Amino acid sequence: MDIHYLDNSATTQVCEAAAQAALDMMRLNYGNPSSLHGLGIKAEEQVEAARQAVADSLSVDSKNIIFTSGGTEGNNTVLFGAAQALSRRGNRIIVSAVEHSSVYESAKRLSELGYDVVYAPVDKSGTVDVEALIELLTEKTILVSIMTVNNETGTIQPIERIEKLVHKYSPEALFHTDAVQAYCKIPLKPKKLGVDLMTVSAHKIHGAKGSGAIYIRDGARILPLLYGGEQQKKLRPGTESSPLIAAFATAVVHSDIFQNSEHIKKLNAYALERLASIDGVSINSPPDALPYIINLSVQGIRSETMLHHLESFGVYVSSSSACAKGKRSYVLEAMGLPDDRIDSSIRISFSKYNTEADIDALIEGIESGVRTLQKK
Q1: 3-class DSSP state for residue 283?
Q2: Longest CA span, the chain
Q3: Contact by Cβ (8 Å): 143, 277
Q4: pLDDT tens digits, residue range 8-66?
Q5: Please, where are the H alpha helices in 146-256?
Q6: Less CB within 10 Å around the terminal CB: N or C of the chain?
Q7: How far is the C-alpha of 249 from the C-alpha of 264, rounded, in Å?
Q8: Which residues form the catalytic set?
Q9: What CA–CA distance (Å, rounded) separates 291 from 80?
Q10: Per-residue confidence band for 229, with pLDDT thresholds at 50, 70 and 90
């Protein structure tokens, strides 16, 4: 049976060049980047070349890039690191109601530790209610975290506008954006956006799992989560995973945002056209969402049931964020969707490797599910 993988927001297939880069580092250039001998220096050169590649993709200086194990560590580092570094200035932390769980759960823990954590509401499209956000911004606000693209719906937040408001009403606050789902899919320039901190990850862009990065603006101070080494300015100590970092940079270099975007837009339009012909299908993503993601509901068929039905057709999708492991979507709840839409929601997400044949298989599977599984 052919595989039709449409769960690329959960993870992507590692591209051949990135896999080879990791293998070369593991088998040929295996020195510890912190060692002072020749093999160590050679490995360090590759790590620094990778840092430059990630920096170039964001149009920033390489000294502003810190490698991590991925989006979750990056987001945790930012939230806990900023909270601790700025606690003398205030204790208010603002995150949106639709953040990835690595931000949402970190904020929850910070609340338990005594920080004043508040959640910015969103409208029915999943976009942050800017007027409500303004009301939450105070002189005691030390950190605001709003994701660039939502991982479940593809909603694109107006980051540049939000940044201006944050720094107007809470000038001492740091502004962070989780850009994991946006990275290498839309142009991202932290300096232009005005963000102080940005999180990105490798395995959403055909790099290997276990690698990511944080952009930290000059002058933005956060404290580390880990201690015990001199690496990466002590912000993320420990031996760098040079194979995964090399794979990350290679995936970045092989990302063609414009070419991929045109391909994905065509796939998205084709999918929406085919889905529109099926009775009982509702699209939960807004019309201007990132085209890589379509969140939809099939009336009368629970998410998990449809997910496994589609798998029998070789089609792989998600019932929500992969990190939720099947739990009900708080993102769709925050958008005000009715219970039946939430309980029947699935997410399809594209990559540059997808074709119309994958969508045809998806449509065939959904149509079969409607005929055989739908509650009348």
Answers
A1: strand
A2: 71
A3: no
A4: 999 999 999 999 999 999 999 999 999 999 999 999 999 999 999 999 999 999 999 99
A5: 159-169, 190-193, 242-253
A6: C
A7: 22
A8: 323
A9: 32
A10: confident
